[in-house]
Queue: 2 jobs
Job 1
Amino acid sequence: MWAVLLFLALVGLGFFFGRINEAKHFAYLDAREAELAHITLSNTKYIPDGITNSVFVSGNVVISIDYFKRIGAALRGLVGGRMETYTTLVERARREAIVRMKIKAQENGMTHIANLRLISASVFKNAKTDIGSIEVYAYATALK
Amino acid sequence: MRNIELTNLETLPGRTIVKHLGMVQGNTVRAKHVGRDIMAGLKNIVGGELTGYTELLTESREESIGRMTEEASALGANAILNIRFSTSSVSAGASELYVYGTAVVVS
């Protein structure tokens, strides 16, 4: 009985706070991306003319999924199909990592970012308490 | 230790490569922290960033980079080109962060 109530409470908490957190995070990302849009981003190795300075920049983030979505994903895993819950989690992580990297480029007064690379890992996946989290690491060379 | 320039491009803008010194690498294996894990467990209910883990991985990568630059410095390099990172899960709750690149002398 108590176990069921606890489960429902966790799902409820996850549903409400998870939604609020996600909406807040997307709003934050939209705002920062607009602010940082003047720094061009490329994943090619092309160096524009007149560049004389470079600095290595990177950004990373570990984001966890909420309880409600984890249960939803577990159910989805039974029938297959598109996992919308994890899609937004990974999107948030990638955008956040890129924003953090761009902030570092801005601090250094850089105007371009070349050779962007993204790597992701579910680092602590093998752990006993498997938490649905992902790390995204973005690195590149900022140019001026 | 000399100041070593890092880049993941194959050249350094505005500089010329004088000498290639071969590949340099750095790695570190880190285990997660129980205290951080408890916090992560709580955070896992409502979702969001696991700040403790973000910091842990940032520190670990810095350590790997530190080891790589030490190696480059010992070879007499002043820049490392074409840096790449990779991550692997070694065992439950531990991860390896590996970084590698090519040490060069630039003028």
Job 2
Amino acid sequence: MMADLEVVVDKTVINKQAIHACFNVTYPQAQSSSLDVDLTLPGRGITAIFGHSGSGKTTLLRCIAGLEKLAQGNLSVNDVVWQNQNSFIPTHKRPLGYVFQEASLFPHLTAQGNLNYAIKRADEKISNEDYQRVIETMGIETILQQYPQQLSGGQRQRVAIARALLIQPQLLLMDEPLASLDNARKQEILPYLERLRSSFDIPIFYVSHSMDEVARLADHAVVLDEGKVIAQGSLGEVFTRLDLPLGFSDETGAILQGEIVERDEQWHLAKVAVAGGDFWVRDGSDKIGHQVRIRVQARDVSLALSDHDDSSILNRLKAEVIEICATQDEAMALVRLKVGKDVIVARLTQRSLNELNVQCGQQLFAQIKSAAIIR
Amino acid sequence: MIFSDSDIAAIWLTLRLATTVTLVLLIIGTPIAWWLARTKSWLKGPIGALVALPLVLPPTVLGFYLLIAMGPQGVLGQFTTSLGLGTLPFTFWGLVVASVFYSMPFVVQPIQNAMEALGDRPLEAAATLRAGPIDRFFSIVLPLAKPGFITAAILGFAHTVGEFGIVLMIGGNIPGETRVVSVQIYDHVEALEYAQAHLLAGVMIAFSFTVLLGLYWFQRKSPLLVLK
């Protein structure tokens, strides 16, 4: 039901609330453009800008913020022009918030001072209620009197996110906010980012090279490679595409929305109902009825012509082949499968593909070796 | 009192000169330092070199040209005459102008270094928080570059106190007007008043040593704040 509703809202609202960005950035030394994109991005939810380092993700974000001096292009946000041939709204007049890779707090101000810096300059006075909500969402009540040098990397980043929220942006840009943190700190901040997603109705562009973060947080994704857009769309669409370049083949996989319907305490498993069937996954102590996101990577999916119950694989789902595609790796092939309303992808060897004689439209069984709850 | 009246007059004059020059330099040196720190123009090299020239030129060279420029036929001289101020050589304000040029690198360079050390990031962060250019300068650049300003003020002051050659060229030796401590010492030596010379020279050494010691202590205690 949720999904249906979202589609309807998308169609009517996205046209008005969309961000159109068309940029060309060429550095004098470089042979080709460093960034050459023409994108229409949804004006709601979290849009991941995903790619390897050097793919131009940060440059794109900086262009949107007006920080990139060499950028030529057009940018409009919810029908307001921020940049075109004739006009360029400087960064400080754009209603955006920006979270840098390093927290970039002002070292001469306390955490509170940093927040006040934003509050003082926001277009509208922030209500005490909203202020408290930001502070609580980011969990920074107790560290406000400290200077940035006294805070841990994770705490600094939370203050920086709060600071960006307090400017009351119409668009929040986040440039790999977790990249400079170690893994423990990342796990510390991720829940705050999820809360951010659920408590604030601000469109967020989230630059990342980490598939884990993208799968967990994003609703939409844009994949950049060498300054060009190679895929964009909803998270499910983008990562079930079969034509992502080789460098992304490990990321190919489905991200499915489901609900916990049963917990098997004895074997520490939980059953997640998605549109196409039920999945047993490792019990992450989520309660029954909880909405979760699970990720099924292509490399964990194999195919069988009949429904064996003599294998160790718990998750076997009826599937229909919708697309078969060779990969750049000559030994392997990718198969897109329709499972109920969802799409998953299987990666198998060309030889198996041949031996099973897999054809488009064929009904068979997808065996899923592992699926993980990512949220 | 061990100092003669003329010694005390010279000390006061020196302090007045150094204070005035420091204030003037902080005001005009800051935009120059800001421009040098931020510009990508090809003029950065030439202007930077021009500012640094007094570091290597003999004071007599600078003094000579300033004397000509401030004289009745010079550009500066004609300008000040047209304002009804007369010409500047051999006046206190003539000394101020000359000292401003002469001490410029000691003020501009520490400020410039502090501003360059800031990098772009704090300014970008401030811009995303709706701070315009002037707001950014006062709310971010000034407080973060404060150690550079303090170093600049101390060096500018101390260097002006220690001037000699350019004072002789521009100011001459007029009691209460241009006769600063360094010139007074010279006079004492010329007149073979070694005791008086010792006293003033000793004061200068003590002053300079204290100032530099204070500066190094300050620099160790408050390095530039780094963005994290």
